[in-house]
Amino acid sequence: MSETVERHEFGAEVGRLLDLVVHALYSEREIFLRELVANAADAVDRRRFESLTGQAPALPEHAKLRVVPDKAARTLTISDSGIGMSKAELAQHLGTIARSGTLAFAQSLAEAPGAEKPSLIGQFGVGFYSAFMVADRVEVTSRRAGAEEAWRWESDGKGQYTIAPAERAETGTDIVLHMKADAEEFLDPWRLQAIIRKWADHITVPITLLRDGKEEPANEGTALWRKPRSDVTAEQYRDFYRHIAHAFDEPWATLHWRAEGTLDFSALLFIPSAKPFMAMEDSRESRVRLHVRRMFITEEAGLLPPWLRFVQGVVDTEDLPLNVSREMLQATPVLARIRKAATGRVLSELKAKAKDAEAYAPFWEHFGQVLKEGVFEDAEHRKDVAALLRFRSSAVEGWTSLADYVGRMKEGQAAIYILVGDDPAALAKSPQLEGFRAKGVEVLLLSDGIDAFWPEQLGTFEDKPIRSITQAGADLSAIAGATAEGEAADLTLLLPRIKEALKDEVSEVRATDRLVDSAVVLAAAQHGPDLQMARILRRAGRGFGGPPVLEVNPRHPLIRKLAEGAATDTTLAETAGLLLDLARMQDGEAPRDPAGFAKRVAAALAGG
């Protein structure tokens, strides 16, 4: 047999991560059992679903998970009759850890304060490896549904694993943990029972625990979402949320209801109170679980739109057949109605929560960027989502809504003004704001990646158009307020010479009244996108809408000096380039030629 044993090396990052998992999560060692039981339950659910669609043999009539402690042998075995794994799947799933970002996870785990470390397990695809917190060797024997042969994966978690042929009479998986000397507590049936009750009581697959030679039920297996809300405690909601979300935070909101009538379904949904460790941009699909008559079907039914993908939970319906296929899920009108009802319920909850600005702020900071996607892509719910948006502002502290902004608009102000960029701190200091601040006109500051796209889709809010101030300089003249002070220079000669020097780098050079302290500023071309969208298009290699406009402050000392010598100044062409670079830098862009710009500034300082 030894000749057929294959030895494989974990990658360097994997070895580092294993070391961190083993040594950095000591205070929450019991989590290993929850992770292994959850994986086994998922395997059973997957086999059940695939058997309904003819892709796997049917489950045994009394399918269950078995937890078997053996103090004499110092082993703990978790067995299931689930889908099983082939040789290739053993290597793929157990020989590769956190493929979506091993190094990032390892760094975060190493740097996290002690009290925060447990929250990282279960959120990055490394649950199985929590076994090495309590075991110095782990064996996994598995037989894939439909296969005749079984395989054994084995490792001590120190850099290598082996895969060899094995024997298993039935489909499923056995995980045998050879326990460490300091992990004897996890061989005590009473301790194991307490852990299962804490973490896995809501798993609908029966779990048994071997105690005194007898198999005894270890979990209640209750479909919590089927119970009346009045019969469920806050602790039960919390534990169930943590189980399905693989999270350790408290749910920020819990939605539990039953729909009866034209639709018959139960739903238990949770809005998290903390952002998940894995970026939500990695997958844009909702993972709310679909059950039919308590039986798990899939988490890929798209029960909520992508812009609500942070919501976790279960929807259980009586109105679909148990053998529903994924193709049927895409076409059935029943599911479309459930989606609409669930989406409406979540929106209603968010509207109610948004009335408390202090309580709503943490949610917005975690999930606001995702929610904005609904304004961009969902025409049906666009106005509802827009009412939930919150922004930083040039005029008020904290977060503000579009409705609050409209309530503060000045006399003569016809539009909602926004400024979009990459850095919120830079936006607050942008010269683009000078004229608007001088007249007391509020501007919303937008710095998320999606902010360049959704305002155009929304168009208006409460009949007020939404306009970028990089396109709205002319609007200021219609708004009551102070005007710029000081004598304006005659720019008749200067502007054409600057335009001639800059050629096609700008579409126009013109005077402006919207600057107070700055000499120049960029503006969007009349028939093109705003400045932020133009930048995004340039970065993508797609020029659109022409070059920007360079606006000049005729009251600024520098501009007045340049205007006085415009007819004879032989260095004006070089100065024009400096002005354009200054305007670009004020908007967070690099000079056209950074090295040349640095030399020109140094020469100017030396000459001064």
TrEMBL record:
InterPro entries: HATPase_C_sf (IPR036890), HSP90_C (IPR037196), Hsp90_fam (IPR001404), Hsp90_N (IPR020575), Ribosomal_Su5_D2-typ_SF (IPR020568). One of its GO terms (cellular component) is cytoplasm. Residues 1-326 are annotated as: A. Its main location: cytoplasm. It is found in: Cytoplasm. Homodimer. GO terms for molecular function: ATP binding; ATP hydrolysis activity; ATP-dependent protein folding chaperone; unfolded protein binding. Keywords: ATP-binding, Chaperone, Cytoplasm, Nucleotide-binding, Stress response. SUPFAM superfamilies: ATPase domain of HSP90 chaperone/DNA topoisomerase II/histidine kinase, HSP90 C-terminal domain, Ribosomal protein S5 domain 2-like. ATP binds at residues 35, 39, 80, 85, 100-101, 123-128, 173, 326. It holds the Pfam family HATPase_c_3. The keyword Nucleotide-binding applies. CDD domains: HATPase_Hsp90-like. HAMAP family: HSP90 (MF_00505). NCBIfam families: PRK05218.1 (NF003555). This is Chaperone protein HtpG. Residues 536-608 are annotated as: C. Belongs to the heat shock protein 90 family. Molecular chaperone. Has ATPase activity.
